[in-house]
Amino acid sequence: MRFDRDKLEALLGRIQHKMTLPRAPARTAAAAPLGAAAPLGSGGSHLPLELDEPGLDSLSPPAHGPGGANELDLDEPPESGRSRVRSAELLGSDDEADGHPPLTPPPESGEEPAPKVSIPRDPGPTMAQLGQTITLDEASGGVLELAEPAPPPSRRGVDQLEMSPPQVGYSEELPLPENAREELDRVRLGQSTEVGPTVHSRPVLSTNVVDFVSAVRSYQPETFLDLLDTSLRL
Amino acid sequence: MTPRFDPTRAIVYDLSRGQLRDDEGQTRLNVPYFQLHRLCEQAGAPATADFGQALGADIGRRIRERLGSNVDVADVSVWTEHLGGHLALLGLGDLTLERWGRALVVRVVGAPVGSASLLSAVIAGALQRGLGRNVQIVPFEVEDAVALLVLSPETADRARALREAGESLGRVVEQLHRGSP
What we know:
heterodimer, A: mainly alpha, B: alpha+beta, Muramoyl-pentapeptide Carboxypeptidase, domain 2, 3-stranded antiparallel sheet, 6 helices
């Protein structure tokens, strides 16, 4: 009998310790009523003997039986989700009726209050970071005068400038562009600029047309001996 | 058909005997030019001219023997080939023949420095022996070549006087043409 009491006390301490631990997020409202809340709601004071097992078993995912509520059936219509929520609401209402607070808050209970996070205030730069402090003189009470931007030149103002028209006409000595006559012919013929005539110009003669032929025949020695004799007669 | 110049076995180096021989079996000697030039300067102009005349006479004899009956009717190109070939075998430069109006000019490029007098004697000896003409040479040094004006002994004296007066080859030839009939 004493053995059972010690065991129960140890079990009670373990349960209290578990109550202080944060709940795992996996055990949501859909799983908790089916796995844990139902025995509590039905039996109340009857604790299962499985509590002798190490406490970490409570973190294991609930068993998924062939007809379990967590089993996802893709063929089911979307309304099946609502039925599970409705069953959870019903189970939650039963727990409240029994006086036990629900292990997980119902969906309609709203958002859980966010944990309070303390953000340390920025104390500002230290004196070492600031370095030497320079005291600035206060600004004098002068008035800043901004120069007005120059107005953009208006077209009307340019037109009003005095202009002197050219007094002299085109000089007749100016040479024509090289392809001026060719372009004029193209326009007259109505041809496109890509099509041009093939011009075969007569080559420029580099020799003189007029030549003077001497009446005296130039000397052309037939043999080397003739050349030698001619040179000796000089 | 006019025979071509043939330099085959023109000079034979017999290293076992330590001798140089030409194609006729005559003994040759390979000596540095500057040593020979020094010897000619010490020997004097008449001796150098005689030495060059002898060298040219041997060339004229060979050309005459080679050309045979064609020696008098051979054209300028034939003589350029033969006379230039023999001059090249002696190492006296590259010869070309030029005609300035009626004057004959022998131009030699690449001749040893200071060999104008020797070259003149060689060419004169070759023409005298080869064609039987008494010629004298008036040399003109033009840039990197030596131009040898071929004249008669009488005209050569006049040309030398013009050259000594500072006239160039062209001016001398022009003066000679004006004074000739």
